[in-house]
Design goal:
Blueprint: H1 2-6, H2 27-48, H3 50-54, H4 72-84, E1 102-103, H5 105-125, H6 131-145, E2 148-149, E3 154-155, E4 158-159
Antiparallel strand pairs: 1-4, 2-3
Helix pairs in contact: 2-4, 5-6
């Protein structure tokens, strides 16, 4: 499912729609999403007054401090993204100009480790891993190397 629904570029890196998918609070990714969500939410709210109306449907506003929850515009942007993908986890249907897809380093590193573990388990059981899945595993390992930044000497997540 991850490779089928969350690898729209078929490069081996699973994308996340929002940093919260990975439990991330990294400022740069949050700021990129916030800027996108605010712009998208502002445009939609201007046309439909939808972000403002959404506040009446939100239950978290009564229990969670505003600094710990997404803004109305961010919720609206997430709703728009989910609607654009047909209500599924697929990122393929999301328009590139209207979505922030994150190739999260931590998430994909864990995925690569899980892929290696799955291969070891399959070997131990004497069961073959399908060749198409093995190809995905290899693409993930190669694609993680594309997240390396030579100038800083470290890996970084990427937004697409």
């Amino acid at each position: 499912m991850l490779y089928r629904e969350r690898d729209p570029n078929r490069r081996g890196l699973v994308t996340l729609v929002h940093p919260w998918n990975a439990g991330s609070t990294r400022r740069a990714l949050d700021e990129a999403l916030r800027a996108h969500a605010v712009a998208m939410g502002r445009a939609a709210a201007t046309r439909l007054h939808a972000a403002h109306l959404l506040r009446f449907l939100r239950r978290d506003t009564k229990f969670v401090p505003s600094v710990q929850r997404p803004t109305d515009s961010e919720v609206w942007a997430c709703w728009c993204s989910r609607s654009a993908s047909g209500g599924t986890a697929s990122t393929a249907a999301l328009p590139a100009s209207e979505s922030v897809l994150i190739e999260d380093l931590a998430f994909n590193s864990i995925l690569a480790a899980a892929n290696r573990s799955l291969t070891l388990i399959a070997d131990e059981l004497g069961q073959p891993v399908p060749s198409a899945l093995q190809e995905q595993f290899a693409r993930t390992d190669d694609a993680i190397e594309q997240l390396w930044d030579e100038e800083s000497g470290q890996y970084f997540s990427a937004t697409r």
